[in-house]
Amino acid sequence: MKLADHLISSNPEALVPAVPPALTSAGAGTDEDEARVKASLQRWLNYVCANEVLMKDDEMVLFVESDFGYSPMLKRKQPATGVRRKVIKQFAPPPDDTPELQEARPVVKLFYLGTMDAGHKVDKLVKARRGRPPFFMTSFLHAFYAK
How many other CB atoms sit within 10 Å of the CB of residue 116? Predict the structure, then answer.
């Protein structure tokens, strides 16, 4: 888990999948459970090791080269907050090497902003409906009291 957390925070340009769970639906302690856990962890390692960016990470090299166990050496860099984030946002994003990425950046940003806006609207709607009974109940109550 610590390795995955480090890889996610220090390599934002790479997609790191979630670490598979330690237990499966086969039941803890069974041979089938152990085989499934090993297979899922092997798939995770294969995916991570296939990524060139992740394989150049110092922590990943330490993990692969360690013989008996792994303990993280580097502390995870905390995400930018407050003043540091404002300073970073003032700078223009770095230029993209490929034209496809350069053309996709505005589309991705619009999608991100649209989903953020939709999320805020859903949150508002949920907060507004919290104090009211469900719609079918209000319809029933109106019909009942109208008689």
Answer: 10
Question: Rounded to 10 degrees, what is the CA torsion of 124, 127, 131, 136?
Answer: 60
What is the reported pLDDT for 74? 58
Gyration radius (Cα) of the chain, Å: 24
Mean pLDDT, residues 100-113: 88
Domain boundaries, the chain: 2-65, 91-139
Phi, psi of 64 (to 5 degrees): -70, -40
pTM for this entry: 0.45
Give 129's Cβ-side CA count (13 Å radius). 11
For residue 64, the one-letter residue type is: V
Instruction: Quick: pLDDT tens for 35-63.
Output: 888 888 889 889 888 888 888 888 888 88
Short-list 67, 81, 57, CA closest to 3: 57
- Distance separating alpha carbons of residues 79 and 118, to the nearest angstrom: 24
